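Please fill in the sequence for the structure shown.

STRUCTURE ENCODING:
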């Protein structure tokens, strides 16, 4: 998987850690829906950004991996078409689009486990076999030879962890690029001077917006800084990502080491080969942030948060009033929700009137 891009957008909010349930981590990091349900949303105050993102951006990931795996030069649109769509290059648009979804199941499994166990950066190596199988499905499906996932695991064993060291090397600078803002001012300045590219988010906040306190950044400043951080992370990790992908897309019986791949790339493809597939990843940085934080969070916070709140209300009603079974029915939960909503509205109106009254008294003084 690529280094975390969307996580960059969290910015200083990452400091506000909150314990999450496995379900909340699975569904993605979203904004709490606490209009009137308050703590009832503790089990589900998240959007489904992580999982839903796969269905929108998996085709771009497939394109990226195929461009990385291509060892020739692309000099025309027809060649690019053949590299991206392979045997479906001459098919209809619909067929071409659906051909970009191989390995989606492995990607979903990876994302689910990553969310549940909070695996990021170098820790993602634990899930490397799923990433390897996904990449092979995307770029070299012949490697499976008709075998299912369990048969492959039994046959290959630790061979599914090929490229682990390159994955760790790829993820480390990406994580560093994202989290550089947490360093002390002097160390951050020294490192930014040496490799400004690594700290895109911190660099944007400190040297473009002149922010002394990152917590005072506006939404727009955070968004722009997030784009800068994500871009820095992708650019820094791109060469390692290409090598990692080429290690993992080969046939199981014909592995090749990373340094040999690196040497062949330098000799036969040139320096630009280390940045193959970078363009679609960069183009998707902004849309991914917008997709995750503008579109999915509000929608899925309502759906998932509402269901989680209802489930918790039902559990509490059963614990508090075991003799009143009608309270644990969905009708009882609905009545309780309406009661909470009405109570919230009344409290809101009371506080508003109090504020107006106090404002009038202050003016009279």
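FILLED IN BY: designer on duty
SEQUENCE:
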């Amino acid at each position: 998987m690529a280094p975390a891009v969307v996580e960059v957008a969290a910015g200083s909010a990452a400091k506000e850690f909150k314990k999450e349930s496995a379900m909340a981590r699975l569904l993605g990091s979203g904004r709490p829906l606490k209009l009137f349900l308050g703590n009832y949303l503790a089990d589900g105050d998240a959007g489904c950004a992580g999982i839903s993102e796969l269905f929108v951006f998996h085709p771009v990931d497939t394109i990226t991996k195929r461009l990385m795996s291509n060892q020739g030069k692309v000099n025309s649109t027809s060649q690019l078409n053949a590299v991206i769509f392979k045997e479906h290059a001459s098919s209809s648009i619909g067929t071409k689009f659906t051909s970009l979804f191989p390995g989606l199941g492995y990607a979903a499994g990876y994302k689910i486990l990553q969310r549940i166990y909070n695996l990021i950066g170098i820790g993602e190596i634990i899930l490397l076999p799923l990433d390897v199988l996904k990449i092979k499905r995307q770029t070299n499906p012949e490697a499976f030879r008709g075998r299912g996932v369990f048969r492959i695991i039994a046959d290959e064993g630790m061979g599914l962890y090929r490229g682990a060291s390159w994955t760790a090397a790829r993820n480390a600078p990406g994580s560093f690029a994202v989290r550089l803002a947490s360093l002390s001012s002097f160390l951050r300045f020294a490192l930014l001077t040496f490799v400004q590219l690594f700290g895109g988010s911190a660099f944007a906040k400190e040297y473009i917006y002149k922010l002394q306190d990152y917590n005072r950044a506006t939404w727009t400043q955070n968004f722009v800084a997030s784009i800068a951080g994500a871009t820095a992370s992708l650019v820094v990790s791109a060469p390692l990502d290409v090598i990692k992908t080429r290690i993992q897309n080969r046939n199981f019986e014909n592995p090749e080491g990373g340094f040999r791949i690196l040497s062949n790339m330098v000799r036969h493809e040139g320096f630009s080969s280390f940045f193959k597939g970078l363009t679609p990843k960069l183009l998707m940085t902004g849309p991914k942030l917008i997709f995750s934080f503008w579109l999915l969070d509000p929608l899925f916070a309502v759906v998932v948060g509402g269901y989680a709140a209802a489930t918790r209300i039902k559990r509490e009603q059963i614990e508090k009033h075991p003799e009143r079974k009608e309270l644990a029915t969905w009708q009882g939960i609905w009545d309780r929700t309406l009661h909470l909503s009405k109570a919230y509205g009344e409290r809101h109106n009371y506080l508003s009137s109090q504020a107006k009254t106090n404002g009038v008294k202050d003016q009279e003084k």
